[in-house]
Design goal:
263 residues, alpha/beta, 8-stranded mixed β-sheet, 8 helices, Rossmann fold
C-alpha cells in the first residue's frame, strides 16, 4: 500500500514504481544551492533512503537560493538542517548524515549501498569530485552531476563503464587525489554554452577565482532535472539516458531544452 504522503504521485507514477523509489538509496554529496533542493525533491518523490554529506555552514550569502536557508540556521551545518526538514516531510525516510563531508576515510562508506550517487560538490573542490567518482566507478555506480548556469541548468551523467571524470576534465588518469586542487577545471567542461546574457566581466571573474553567481530559479531547475532523471533511471531501465560527453541542457531565458555533446 502506498504511503498517504505520496498518494498524489500515483497516476504519474505507478504503485510498483513508488515501491521501487521507496527501496532506493541515493547518495548526495553537497547539499548547498543545488544539492539541498535535490534532497527535498527526492524526499517528496518518496525515495526511502538518503545519504547526505556536507561540512558547510549556512551563511547570509546562501539566503538568495539555498533550500533550508533562513536567518534561524545561519552558522548551522547544512546536512543537519536539510535532514531535519526532510524528516518533517517524511518521518519514515532513512537518513545517513556525513556532517564532515566526504573524504578518503569515509568515501567507501558513503558510496556503499547507493543506487545512484549525485555530485553536488563545490566547483572549487574538484579533488573531492575525483574521490567521489573513483569510488562510484569502483562500485559500478552512475554519478549524476548537476550545475545551475545563469537562468538554466546542465546535467552530466557519468557511466561507470564510460568516460571518467578525470578524462572528461583533462586531468591525468592516475593523478593523486591530493594533487587535483593544483589543476583548474576548464569552465567549458560543465558550462559548454556560456550564456550570452552574462557579462564577460563576470565570466572573467569566475575564471580568476571569484564565486560563481547563482539564482534561485536555476537552482530549482537543476534540482527538478536531477530528481526527474534519478527517478526515471530507477523505474525505467529501457529509457535512453545521455551519458558524458553528452549532457542535458535547459535554459529558461532562451527557452531551450536539448541534449548537447561536449566532445
Amino acid at each position: 500500500m502506498v504511503n498517504q504522503a505520496f498518494i498524489r504521485n500515483i497516476g504519474i507514477l505507478a504503485e510498483e514504481h513508488q515501491a521501487i523509489l521507496e527501496r532506493a538509496t541515493i547518495g548526495i554529496a553537497g547539499v548547498g544551492a543545488d544539492g539541498g533542493m535535490v534532497a527535498e525533491r527526492l524526499a517528496r518523490l518518496g525515495i526511502g533512503n538518503l545519504k547526505i554529506a556536507d561540512p558547510g555552514l549556512f551563511d547570509e550569502t546562501n539566503l538568495n537560493r539555498q533550500f533550508g536557508a533562513d536567518l534561524k540556521v545561519i552558522g548551522k551545518n547544512k546536512a543537519a538542517v536539510i535532514a531535519r526538514i526532510i524528516k518533517r516531510i517524511n518521518p519514515l525516510i532513512k537518513l545517513k548524515l556525513f556532517k564532515d563531508g566526504i573524504g578518503p576515510n569515509n568515501i567507501e562508506k558513503f558510496v556503499a549501498g547507493c543506487d545512484i550517487v549525485i555530485d553536488e560538490i563545490e566547483y572549487t573542490r574538484p579533488d573531492l569530485s575525483v574521490l567521489l567518482h573513483r569510488a562510484a566507478r569502483k562500485n559500478n555506480k552512475y554519478v549524476f552531476l548537476g550545475i545551475n548556469v545563469g537562468w538554466g541548468a546542465n546535467l552530466f551523467i557519468f557511466d561507470p563503464q564510460g568516460i571518467t571524470f578525470e578524462e572528461y576534465c583533462g586531468l591525468p588518469a592516475d593523478i593523486p587525489f591530493e594533487e587535483v586542487r593544483n589543476y583548474s577545471i576548464p569552465l567549458d567542461r560543465f558550462c559548454p554554452k556560456i550564456p550570452e546574457y552574462v557579462s564577460p566581466s563576470v565570466i572573467e571573474g569566475v575564471l580568476n577565482g571569484k564565486e560563481i553567481p547563482s539564482i534561485s530559479p536555476a537552482c530549482s531547475l537543476i534540482a527538478s532535472l536531477v530528481a526527474t532523471e534519478t527517478a526515471l533511471f530507477l523505474i525505467d531501465n529501457k529509457r535512453h539516458f545521455p551519458v558524458v560527453p553528452q549532457y542535458i541542457h535547459v535554459d529558461f531565458f532562451r527557452r531551450e531544452l536539448n541534449v548537447g555533446n561536449n566532445r
